[in-house]
Write a structure and sequence with these properties.
It contains 10 helices and no strands. It is an all-alpha fold. The chain has 2 domains: about 120 residues, Serine Threonine Protein Phosphatase 5, Tetratricopeptide repeat; about 70 residues, no CATH class. α1 crosses α7, α7 packs antiparallel against α8 and α8 runs antiparallel to α9. The longest helix has 28 residues. The chain is rod-shaped, with a radius of gyration of 24 Å.
């Protein structure tokens, strides 16, 4: 549950690239993040379920062939190895595991969480609270570096709030080079880049 929040908290110290957006866990929770179900608890549940799903059939099959004592030993060892392998795979694909074992209703994707948080950054920008806005955007990009809408908002904040045209153009170039011509974020970034005196023919 704390992974996304911890990553956000780690970013919150800045230049404009690291201005503190929120000072504590409660404030971060209050700006739109709904943490997904705790992956550690999911892994515990997955461990127990997998161990029993594997060990019980192996135990019954083993009893028929090698006797009770050997069957218990073989079942335990085999189930432990298989379960640890499943947990390892689960950690690599934690979102899938959350859906399968925690229920789809319990997961909000990282991008959805970041989109909610970006709305808070936009509001802070509208209110000219640029330090808070850029801190939130930095936290978003730390968690989701390919969130190009957030990168565009960061460029706007750097230009409007800090008069840092060079840095703003740097982020706009990243957006332009990594998005398709017909995407809204590409069009908006290109327009702003031209306004700042850049050449969109990168």
């Amino acid at each position: 549950m704390e992974k996304i929040i911890k990553k956000i908290k780690q970013e919150l110290k800045i230049s404009p690239d690291s201005i503190q957006a929120e000072s504590n866990l409660d404030k971060i929770k209050n700006i739109g993040i709904k943490p997904p179900k705790d992956v550690d608890s999911l892994n515990q549940s997955l461990f127990i379920k997998t161990f029993f799903w594997v060990s019980i059939p192996l135990l019954f099959v083993g009893i028929s062939y090698v006797g009770l004592v050997k069957a218990i030993l073989i079942s335990f060892c085999s189930s432990l190895v298989i379960t640890l392998l499943v947990i390892f795979i689960a950690e690599k694909f934690s979102d899938v595991v959350t859906i399968l074992y925690g229920g789809r209703q319990n997961i909000i994707s990282t991008r959805e969480q970041m989109q909610s948080l970006l709305g808070t950054a936009k509001l802070a920008k509208m209110n000219k609270d640029y330090k808070r806005a850029i801190g939130i955007v930095n936290a978003i990009l730390l968690q989701d570096p390919k969130f190009y809408e957030a990168m565009l908002i960061k460029a706007q904040i750097l230009q409007e709030g800090f008069n840092n045209t060079d840095s703003a153009k740097k982020y706009l170039r990243k957006v332009i080079m990594n998005t398709k011509l017909d995407e809204s974020v590409h069009v908006w970034s290109s327009a702003l880049y031209e306004q700042l005196g850049g050449n969109t023919l990168l």
